[in-house]
Specification:
Number of strands: 0
Number of domains: 1
Structural class: mainly alpha
Order of helices and strands: HHHHHHHHHH
Helix content: over 70%
Shape: globular
Strand content: under 5%
C-alpha cells in the first residue's frame, strides 16, 4: 500500500487543473496511469473515483463563491446518467491500442477547447428548442465519454454551456463540476458493480483529487488564465503524442 502513495500526488495535480478549467482531472490522471501499464478499464474506473472526489470538493468551494447555476447543472447532470452506464459497460471490451488512440483524440480536443474558451465566451446565444434538444443529446454523449475514459465529461459540458447556452465562463466551469458530480457518481457505481476498479488505488487518487479540487477552486479566482492555458495545453499535447506513439508500437505500425 505504501508504494502506491504517489497516487495521492497524481490525484492532487489532476484535481487542481480539473477544478480550475472545469474538465475534470482525468485528462491528467488517465494518461499517466495508461503510460504506467494500467489497462484501459482500470485507468478509467480508478480515475472516475478521483473525478467524483474532485467534483465534490469543487462544488462545495464554488457553491460558497455563488458561481453555480443549480437548475441547469442538475438537469444536465441527470441527463448524463444513462450515458455513463453505457460507457462503463462498453469500456469492458476495449483494446488498449484503440483506447490510446481515442483518448489521444480527446486530449487534442481538450487542448483546443482550452485555447478557444475565451472566444467561445464572447458568443452569446439565444437558447432555442433545437439547442435544448441538442443539449439533451450532448449530455447523453458526455456521459458515455465520462465513464468510458474516466474523465468526467467536462470537455463536452463546458463548451455546451458557453457556446451553446450563452453562459459566462466564470459560471460554466463551476456548474460543470456540479454536473460531473452526477456523471462521475453513476459511473463509479456502474464500474464498481462490474468489478473494474482497484479500490485502494482509487481511494488514494480520490484523496489527492479532493484536496486538489479545494485548492484549484480557490486559485481559479486569481490565476492568470493565459499561463494556465499554455502549461496545460503543452502537457496534454505531449500526452496525446505519446499515446499515439504507444498505440502505433503496440499495433506494429512503428518498430525498431
Amino acid at each position: 500500500m505504501i508504494d502506491q502513495l504517489w497516487l495521492i500526488l497524481l490525484g492532487f495535480a489532476g484535481g487542481i487543473l480539473g477544478s480550475m478549467i472545469g474538465l475534470g482531472g482525468g485528462i491528467i490522471v488517465v494518461p499517466v496511469l495508461t503510460f504506467l501499464g494500467f489497462s484501459p478499464t482500470a485507468a478509467a474506473s480508478n480515475s472516475l473515483f478521483a473525478a467524483l472526489s474532485n467534483a465534490i470538493a469543487s462544488t462545495i468551494s464554488y457553491s460558497k463563491q455563488k458561481r453555480i447555476e443549480y437548475s441547469l447543472g442538475l438537469k444536465l447532470g441527470l441527463l448524463s446518467v444513462p450515458g455513463t452506464i453505457l460507457g462503463a459497460v462498453v469500456s469492458s471490451d476495449v483494446a488498449p491500442d484503440i483506447f490510446k488512440v481515442l483518448f489521444g483524440l480527446i486530449l487534442i480536443a481538450s487542448a483546443a477547447y482550452i485555447f478557444l474558451r475565451r472566444n467561445l465566451e464572447s458568443k452569446q446565444k439565444i437558447i432555442s428548442k433545437q439547442m435544448m434538444v441538442f443539449a439533451i443529446g450532448a449530455s447523453f454523449f458526455a456521459g458515455i465519454i465520462s465513464s468510458f475514459f474516466g474523465i468526467g465529461g467536462g470537455i463536452v459540458f463546458v463548451p455546451l454551456m458557453v457556446a451553446g447556452l450563452g453562459m459566462a465562463m466564470k459560471r460554466a466551469a463551476p456548474t460543470s463540476q456540479l454536473i460531473l458530480l452526477f456523471a462521475s457518481l453513476s459511473g463509479v457505481i456502474t464500474h464498481s458493480l462490474l468489478g473494474h476498479p482497484d479500490f485502494t488505488q482509487a481511494g488514494f487518487l480520490a484523496i489527492g483529487s479532493f484536496l486538489g479540487g479545494l485548492v484549484g477552486a480557490r486559485l481559479s479566482i486569481d490565476i492568470k488564465e493565459r499561463y494556465l492555458q499554455v502549461l496545460v495545453s503543452v502537457v496534454i499535447l505531449i500526452a496525446a503524442v505519446k499515446l499515439f506513439y504507444d498505440s502505433a508500437i503496440g499495433s506494429g505500425l512503428v518498430g525498431f
